[in-house]
Amino acid sequence: MKGMNDRPGLRERKKAKTRAAIRKATYRLVAEQGWDAATTDRIAEAAEVSPSTVVRYFPVREDILLTDENDELLEARLRARPAAEEPLESLRAVVLEAVRAALDEEPEETRLRARLMVEIPAVRARLTETTATTGRRLARAIADRTGRDADGLEVRIFTAAVLGALREATVHWAEHGRTDDLVALLDRTVDTLKTGLTPSPPA
């Protein structure tokens, strides 16, 4: 059995390096010339790999923007939250931590990805699918923490509602110039889910 501190093997490190190169090349092409210019052939050329390699790693081109290796980390962090913590607060903590890290480490890529979510219908549609995949993984952790069935209606509704709301908040951020504090907007989103919507006070 592998130890917890074992580093990934050479093959895994090479695959991760290739995926990173493809992503970096794609973001650079899109930033300079737009989404339509970032064809598979041009991405391959910029990343110094073959077109078949791009397709092997990312069969759907939009996944270059939308998928990464963070789902496994999100699940692990969710499982590591205090056992007595409310599931909504656990999801708030792990998602906001991940978004904060993305903004710190890749601010331009994060903003560009959000803009494309609004501008490119195919990216927006694919985002819905990838969010569902993330939701299924996180639902397993939520189910284990609450003693429920991961495929149970309540767990599926809860997880989908939270992730859907956070996705919508990100779209709102992108539609309004990406100048607000995204983490604060996501925090407000969770508050809204927690407290519900009340009538606005009279003007």
From TrEMBL:
| HTH tetR-type domain span | 16-76
The residues that make up the annotated DNA-binding region are: 39-58
Gene Ontology MF terms in the entry: DNA-binding transcription factor activity; transcription cis-regulatory region binding
| Keyword Secreted assigned | no
The UniProt keywords, alphabetically, are: DNA-binding, Transcription, Transcription regulation
One Pfam family per UniProt: TetR_N
Tell me which PROSITE patterns the record gives: HTH_TETR_2
Q: Which InterPro entries match?
A: Homeodomain-like_sf (IPR009057), HTH-type_TetR-like_transc_reg (IPR050109), HTH_TetR (IPR001647), MftR_C (IPR041347)
Residues in the signal sequence: none
Q: What is this protein called?
A: TetR family transcriptional regulator
Origin organism is Streptomyces vietnamensis
